[in-house]
Amino acid sequence: MTKVLICCPTYNGWYRVDWLLKSILLRCSDNDRKILKEESKIVICDDSGKDEHRNKVRDVVYKWKNDLPVELIINEKNLGVAGSWNRLTKSYDSQHIILINDDVIVSKDWLYNLVYFLDNNPNAGGVGQYCFVINEEDVPSLLSSPDVTVSPRHPFTRIKTNESDTVFSQAALPERCMAAVGNFFGFRRDMYNMVGGFDNNYFAFYDESDFGTAIASHGYPSYVLQCPKNYHVWSATFGHAPEINPGIVMTNSKNYYTKKWEGHCEITHKRYMEKIPFQKVKWICRGEEHEALVKGMYGF
Q1: 71: Cα within 13 Å, side-chain hemisphere
Q2: Bond prior to 228 in cis (omega within 30° of 0)
Q3: Per-residue pLDDT reduced to its tens digit, 169-222
């Protein structure tokens, strides 16, 4: 059985898959490399994009196949995010699953820190990893060297901010939450099996919220790691795919989520999160192990 299954759906984003795979190899720490070499598989899922894209994503996977344990699966029809996540998760038996968007650029120890958290916190559900928002124009610099950083941008104005990859108080204490951010998160397979996977009624948006809520309803909070800081090209897929009508899709998903869980995220937080006792968690930051009691936002 593969220990870590790294899953990436893509829709007409062959060049973003190339960015992601290059960053995984370029920004690989010794700890990451060992897990990639001995314990991991990377599976890319082409969600029935254009023929031109399909041919190019094949070329990208073939390009990196000698350096990374990567392979490609192709959906015969467009399944959307939740459907692709389910297919990816079921593509191999594994202990852990990491879902990562094709528009993420990773930093050193991203994989090691996630796997350490999943290995050492059986009372946790999902775990995400913090990402700075960037534009596509920032990507070439990040892929020029493993140690290059760029100034993050405000997610809506896209103006560069003064944030930096610093160590916060308490060694960058993880954030306790109901659902990890959907562009980059992991979980143990037992969590996936417990809730029956992702709800295929979500074509996109709120799918990770639904998954996290289902896990929280069983008593398992999720967390977001603050270290290391990675990079995310905000809304890259939907920004280049107006045919998906993302605004309508988001509204439909929100309405479905609200009806299913009898309330929006904030209400769901109170209903489930306040019932889960605060827990000590273990994590890695800057190569050092830490353990502390973590409380969440709003006292949950």
Answers
A1: 7
A2: yes
A3: 456 899 999 999 899 999 999 999 999 999 999 999 999 999 999 999 999 999
In Å, what is the CA distance from 75 to each residue of 25, 44, 45? 26, 11, 7
For residue range 50-104, list pLDDT tens digits in order. Answer: 888 999 999 999 999 999 999 999 999 999 999 999 999 999 999 999 999 999 9
Element containing residue 104 per DSSP (H, E): strand 104-105
Question: In this structure, which amino acid lies at residue 83?
Answer: G
Question: Among all chains, which residue has been given the structure tokens 């990562």?
Answer: 100
CA dihedral 104, 106, 159, 238 (to 10 degrees): 0
Q: Tell me the C-alpha distance between 178 and 186, whole Å.
A: 14
Q: Is the pTM of this model over 0.90?
A: yes
Output the six-digit token pair for 207. 């799918």
